[in-house]
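Re: Re: token formats

Sure, here are both.
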Amino acid sequence: MLKLSAVAVAVILLSNPVLAQAQQPATKAAAAQPLAARLDALFKPQYKADDPGATVIVVKNGKTVFRKAYGAADVAAKTPLTPGTVLRLGSITKQFTAVAILMLAEEGKLALNDPITRFFPDYPTQGKVITVEHLLTHTSGIVSYTGKSGYVSTMAKDLTVAQMIDGFRNDPLEFEPGTQFRYNNSGYFLLGAIIERVSGTSYASFLEQRIFTPLGMKDTAYEGVERSSAPRAVGYSAQEKGFAPAQPLSMSQPYAAGALVSTVDDLAKWDAAIASGKLLKPASWKMAFTSYKLSPEKSTDYGYGWGVGTLQGTPMVDHGGGINGFRTHALRLPEQKVFVAVLSNADSGNANPEVLAKKAAALAIGKPFMEPKEFKLDARALDAFTGVYDIGNEQRDGKEKRTFTSRDGKLMMARGDRSPAALTPYSKYGFFFPGTLARFEFERDAQGKVTHVTVDNAGERTRNERVGDAPAEREAVKIDNAGFDARAGAYQLAPQFTITVSREGERYYAQATGQRKIEIFPASQDVFFSRDVNAELRFEQAADGAPVAVLHQNGQATRGTRLQ
């Protein structure tokens, strides 16, 4: 729900003519267009007037060079989005939480190396020391509540801060604090509670009094306690056909990890305050924008509330947000004095704000990305690229690998335990993810064997070594079709979210609300898996004998009963 889009970590500049060529302007005529026209040409094709859309702002050298909105704020009412429309920020909220903590630290009311037991004396840290800095940098080891089994089914329920903390405080730590990076909403929830305990006021009031009001951010607030009457956008999720209002969410649950709403204009004011060094001392701002290190050799690419990386070779800090009905991204290039924010009122089904924000920033600094064109490659050539590749310095917890496999004439890539996705070739050795900025260029040794892959993400490159063969594809078994047919139907896993299972001849399918139908394969009569999504669907029986479907995905097990 409140995920951060990862960026590549270490920068390894390699001689790569294909990648370099892919980053040049398409034509001299395009490069000669005014910047605003080029930005409009980037965004306009992505959003239909009658669908959910996005608000956009681009600031350069302190001046707004582009400010526009696309699509509908309310699809049913056919109300257009405007640049002044208020939208949910999602996890962009985290940078405001981090700055609030740093303000309190500068005032001597807390220290970043304070153990959290100073503020929560009875918090069960399981014999470990968890500090405020661990919470800021996603290195605490605490379980993220949004990743827990059953979270989706209860996310519309209003809960107190104490009740929310009780929901994860007793879970075993996932790792030794300070030894791994794992994006974590629980950490930022606890930071909100610390702000309240130290300041003696609510999280919402602290941000309003200490940040929003002094900076003139009149349309920014904790959702539910807004101070202005600016129009609000409805949030949507993609359905099989079109869009529908997103699933309900109580904003007591994202809290300091993602409950703020704002406009692109207010975010530009926020960036101007950062650029001029307001609110914090220079040393504190520097810490916020410095990547936390797990060790001298291993960086996390994350400071305090911001991701830290590069874009087209220039330093960048950024953060994205994904929350019910909304996707967002905001970035700043401090050396180039560029700020970009893209706020969308759809959480799925249309353009990716992160990709668009980065493309817009690249245009603003005169280093645009060029969309690579598909290259015809014989499917038999794909086998040479398959295998397991060590992410190396890019890894944060020491466990992730990239796995490339060949299937149905496509090269598939999966990172860690994520679902595989199809790549498209743009050269004999180069591939890209359509709709993203990710490129993959394979290297061969003198004998012609593939040994490495260079990953280019928005101009930031890493080189991954091939360390083994790809695992064999999971085998399906033969099952009794009559037994499957007895379970076919729609299962409700959450309000407004169902999975429908069906059979066509000897093939089995599952389709989730708003998503395409995918083929599933039997591992047994009761367990099915997908080759497109890293998930399992297991069938059980309720006490009354009624069939129950349990979706196992991303460490969660979500149960659903069959609809009549």
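Second one below.
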Amino acid sequence: MRSATHARWAACAAVTALAATACGGGGSGGGGGDSAVLSSSWGDPQNPLEPANTNEVQGGKVLDMIFRGLKKYDPKTGKAQDMLAQKIDTSDSQNYTITVKDGWTFSNGEKVTAHSFVDAWNYGASLKNNQKNAYFFGYIEGYDKVHPDSGSQSTEALSGLKVVDDQTFTVKLNQKFSSFPDTLGYAAFAPLPRSFFTDHAGWLEQPVGDGPYRIESYTKGSQMALKKWDGYPGADKAQNGGVTLKVYTDSDTAYTDLIAGNLDLVDDVPASQLKNVKNDLGDRYINTPAGIIQTLAFPYYDSAWNQSGSDKVRTGLSMAINRKQITDTIFRNTRTPATDWTSPVLGTAGGFKEGLCGSACDYDPAQAKKLIQEGGGLPGGQLKITYNADTGSHRMWVDAVCNSINNALGNDKACVGNPVGTFADFRNQIGQHKMTGPFRAGWQMDYPLIQNFLQPLYYTNASSNDGKWSNQDFDKLVDQANAETDTAKAVGTFQKAEEVVRDNMAAIPLWYQNGSAGHSERLSNVALNPFSVPVYNEIKVS
């Protein structure tokens, strides 16, 4: 919350400090059934929960609970399926007519209409609103006018969006983009009620969506209480009474609370507990593949990492990392050494290409040392890997990566970890371009397309291109792939773009990450979707 809360929220926050079950909060107590509340580990989101301004995992979990968009990704397969979209028609992959299902409302009673989408997308794209996900609207005609690369915007609305009637709107893109409909399950494209615009400050204090849950209270640093919305019109209604998201700054503490019966669900089992988790939880431990890759990113706005020879240094560092030893020793079957920049979850037809990284991802300490020396050595003589320290897992693997690099270079001070206290502080420093060396980066797919693993991260000025890498050849290939209507040809072109990432070692791929979770005995039907997020609405409480 940015400012003083509504009276209802303030009262609820005061009560939850005294009783965990008040206002829909949840410990493990209480009865079962579809009115029972479960508790789950969580971390404070970086930003207020505007759909177009949330591009990190913790805020995304909440948006997935309180919003539904035109598409929804199947919780088992990840496939995009129609949700609020009655139909999406196109004859040329550039001009789309979207029909919104009738009968949907927001939890405040407002009707969801075509305007709900068009107004939300115009808001998200607008330069003056400074939304982190504005880039996702970049293919809609007129984006260059509402969000120019320099100067002020010259218009308030995207010229490519037109409302036809209450249930219909059209979208004109500035080029062909055959996969555009499949992107529309991403939260940035969610509809917004009129209250978002007429009382923006009030909406930020208590966000209103159209999903199966509604937010009842939020105390930063403590917890967020979400309750089942009984009036939700969708088929995927909540099978429980609500979810209390409890803030933890240490994943080991969350795990300890789960074992002690003070927490129902942990959706990220810490590496330090992986040796115990099967004995502790038995079949209540979940370990499933997810569309997540961990990498080391670089600050290309720092000239030390963006000069002749830097690509050799980065490639050498990649070859100095013993991925197999680290994943075997620390992560115990929850991570797999990465050999490309996507995820095996995509499958070969979806763009995953095992081994695309080639020898650059092979552990070869002698070649690593040679390349780093040829590239001019480590900038400043030492590598500092920045990471958020509010989970013990990151410290463990960063130390292991540094040990591997130090061994390859024969210098026990060549690489050190550089911890930042919390995830929010870490993300803020990245957003303010304060990194001076490599930093921890992870990508949890927004939708299951190879495009999503490449374009948001490496395209010039893309929304999650935190290191500001830029390459015209890469950009050109991505544009060509997006315009391709043949899926197989599009995937092939995206893989050519991925080869440009490889040849420049734009980021160092580390490992693919499984989703791991553990839950209490009172929960059943617990699963993680391909995005590694619990399918909260399907969880049952006994």
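Residues 392-409 form the longest helix (18 residues). DSSP finds 17 helices and 19 strands in the chain.
- S.
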